[in-house]
Each structure stands twice: as structure tokens, then as C-alpha cells.
Design goal:
Oligomer: single chain
Strand content: 15-25%
Strand order of the largest sheet: 1-2-3
Number of helices: 7
Order of helices and strands: HHHHHHEEEH
Shape: elongated
Structural class: alpha+beta
Largest sheet: 3 strands, antiparallel
């Protein structure tokens, strides 16, 4: 129950003012029935609380299986499909949130960037005997030599006949 309602009604009751439920409801932006409940709670010194019935989780019979599968680094979807075959009737999101509590989070490894100075390095690719057919069905055989500088937007492409011609360049 809202604390501001309780304090406002308590102040009026200490001054022996009969509470006007509708006026207090407008003042505290609450329904008059809520104000009436607060007045009755203060008059009887009993706070009404709801009894919360704790239902057993649908996962309860499968928790041992889930922990075994998590030890084997299985995904939540794989665990869900496995226990579904064993008779689990709940949803995937229930399994996923339960697994998230226990799954070890891997630390992402930092990547080391390789820096290149302009003109000192290049990437070279060589592919031999590539075959390509055009729309008319004619077969073309060729070799590719690709030379890319890291600081350049241009690249060089050569179609050479053989590897030894490449070495002679």
C-alpha cells in the first residue's frame, strides 16, 4: 500500500476528522475504495497482505540434467530440446533464464592489430589454373596474381601464364 496515503489518512484520523473517501481519493490520485481500505487497516491495526503461494518450478525435476549439460558447455536451446524429449512442458525462455544464472561467461580475448608502415608491406595472392565458363559455354583457363598495398585503395591484378613468369618479374 502506498505510504503517502497511509500518512495522510493517519494525520486526519489523529485530528479526529471523519475521512471523506472521495476527497482524499482526488487529493492522492487514488480510488475511494483504496482510501477506505487504508482507513480500515489503520483502525484495526492490521495490514492486509496477500498470501503468496510458492509454486514449484516446471524445471524442478530437470535441474540435475540441466546442470550436467551446462558442465558440458551445451547451449540453452540444446538443453531445452533435450529435456523437452524427457517430458518438460515449459517454455524455452524459462530454460534460457535459468541457464544464464549458471553459465560461465567467457572473457573475450583482445585482438592485436597489426600496423603496417606505408610501402614496406603488401599482401600477395596467387591462384593457379582457374577455370571459368562464359554465358556461351566457352571455357577459359587462367592464373591470377593479386598484389595489394595496405595503405592504397588501388590493387594490381595480372593474368599470367605460369608461376615461372611471375618469378621472373
Amino acid at each position: 500500500m502506498r505510504n503517502d496515503l497511509r500518512q495522510g489518512v493517519l494525520k486526519d484520523m489523529k485530528e479526529n476528522i471523519k475521512p471523506n473517501y472521495a476527497a482524499l481519493g482526488r487529493q492522492y490520485n487514488a480510488d475511494y475504495r483504496t482510501i477506505k481500505k487504508v482507513v480500515e487497516e489503520i483502525a484495526t491495526d492490521q495490514v492486509k497482505t496477500r498470501k503468496v503461494v510458492k509454486k514449484p518450478s516446471l524445471l524442478e525435476p530437470f535441474k540435475a540434467i540441466i546442470h550436467d549439460k551446462l558442465a558440458l558447455n551445451c547451449s540453452a536451446m540444446a538443453i531445452f530440446k533435450f529435456i523437452q524429449k524427457k517430458g518438460y512442458l515449459g517454455s524455452y525462455s524459462t530454460v534460457k533464464t535459468y541457464c544464464r544464472k549458471f553459465k560461465n561467461h567467457e572473457v573475450k580475448k583482445a585482438t592485436i592489430r597489426v600496423t603496417h608502415t606505408p610501402g614496406l608491406s603488401a599482401q600477395v595472392d596467387w591462384k593457379e589454373e582457374m577455370k571459368l565458363r562464359n554465358s556461351e559455354g566457352i571455357l577459359y583457363k587462367f592464373n591470377i596474381f593479386l598484389y595489394v598495398l595496405p595503405y592504397s585503395l588501388n590493387y594490381s591484378y595480372f593474368s599470367l601464364k605460369d608461376y615461372f613468369l611471375l618469378l621472373s618479374c
